[in-house]
C-alpha cells in the first residue's frame, strides 16, 4: 500500500478540522452565560441518628412467667425518634426556623435536612442550633423526659465572610456529632 499526496492532504485536513473544533469548544467554554451570581449560599446538610432515644426497663418476674419460654426477654425497650428544631440566625435576623420530623412509614428514619439558602454577601455572624423541639420536651414525662434532658444539643456561632457565588457548608461531624461550618 502506498501513501499518496491526496492521502496526506486529507489527513492534514482532518487534523486541522479537529484542531479548529477543539479550539472552538475551548473558547466557547470560557464565555459566561447568564447573569453573574449576586448571592452567597449557605448549604445545610445535616443527618443524624442521635434523634433516636431508647428507653428500656426490666420485666418483673411475674411478667416473665406469663410469657411463653421463647419470648422471655428480660428487658422491654421502646424507642422514640424526637423531632428537632433547626434555627439559623444571621445577626438578629432569623434566616430559618424549622422543626424536622422523622421520615419513614413508622417514623423510624434518621433525621435528615439538605437545603441551600441564598444570603446577601458580606461579613455575617451566623448562629445555628439543632436540638430537640421544645414542644416535645414540654409534653414528655417520666423516663422520656429524663432522656430528652440528656439528649445532645448542637450549636455553633461564628463570624464568616460570605462571598457572591460561593457556598458555605454547615454539617454535623460524624465522629463527635458537632456542628461544623466549612467555607
Outline the structure in words:
This protein has helices spanning 5-30, 61-66, 134-139, 142-150, and strands spanning 40-48, 52-58, 75-81, 84-90, 93-100, 111-119, 122-132, 154-162, 167-172, 179-182. It is α+β, with helices and mostly antiparallel strands and 183 residues long. The strands form three sheets. The chain has a four-stranded mixed beta sheet with strand order 6-1-9-10, with no helix packed on it.
Task: Tell me the major beta sheet.
Answer: 4 strands, mixed
End-to-end Cα distance, whole Å, is 63 Å
Tally the helices: what do you get?
4
Instruction: Assign an overall shape.
Output: elongated
Notable features of this structure?
10 strands, 26% helix, four-stranded mixed β-sheet, 183 residues, alpha+beta, Immunoglobulin-like
In short:
With 183 residues, the chain is of the alpha+beta class.
Give the helix/strand layout:
Elements: H1 5-30, E1 40-48, E2 52-58, H2 61-66, E3 75-81, E4 84-90, E5 93-100, E6 111-119, E7 122-132, H3 134-139, H4 142-150, E8 154-162, E9 167-172, E10 179-182
Parallel strand pairs: 1-9
Antiparallel strand pairs: 1-6, 2-3, 4-5, 4-7, 7-8, 9-10
Amino acid at each position: 500500500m502506498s501513501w499518496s499526496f491526496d492521502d496526506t492532504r486529507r489527513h492534514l485536513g482532518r487534523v486541522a478540522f479537529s484542531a479548529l473544533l477543539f479550539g472552538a469548544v475551548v473558547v466557547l467554554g470560557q464565555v459566561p452565560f447568564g447573569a453573574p451570581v449576586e448571592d452567597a449560599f449557605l448549604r445545610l446538610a445535616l443527618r443524624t441518628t442521635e434523634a433516636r432515644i431508647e428507653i428500656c426497663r426490666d420485666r418483673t418476674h411475674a411478667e416473665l412467667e406469663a410469657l411463653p419460654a421463647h419470648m422471655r426477654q428480660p428487658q422491654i425497650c421502646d424507642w422514640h425518634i424526637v423531632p428537632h428544631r433547626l434555627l439559623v440566625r444571621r445577626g438578629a435576623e432569623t434566616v430559618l426556623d424549622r422543626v424536622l420530623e422523622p421520615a419513614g412509614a413508622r417514623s423510624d428514619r434518621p433525621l435528615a435536612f439538605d437545603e441551600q439558602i441564598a444570603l446577601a454577601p458580606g461579613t455575617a455572624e451566623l448562629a445555628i442550633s439543632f436540638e430537640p423541639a421544645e414542644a416535645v420536651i414540654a409534653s414528655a414525662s417520666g423516663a422520656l423526659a429524663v432522656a430528652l434532658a440528656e439528649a445532645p444539643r448542637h450549636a455553633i456561632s461564628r463570624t464568616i465572610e460570605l462571598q457572591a457565588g460561593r457556598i458555605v457548608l454547615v454539617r454535623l461531624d460524624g465522629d463527635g456529632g458537632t456542628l461544623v461550618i466549612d467555607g
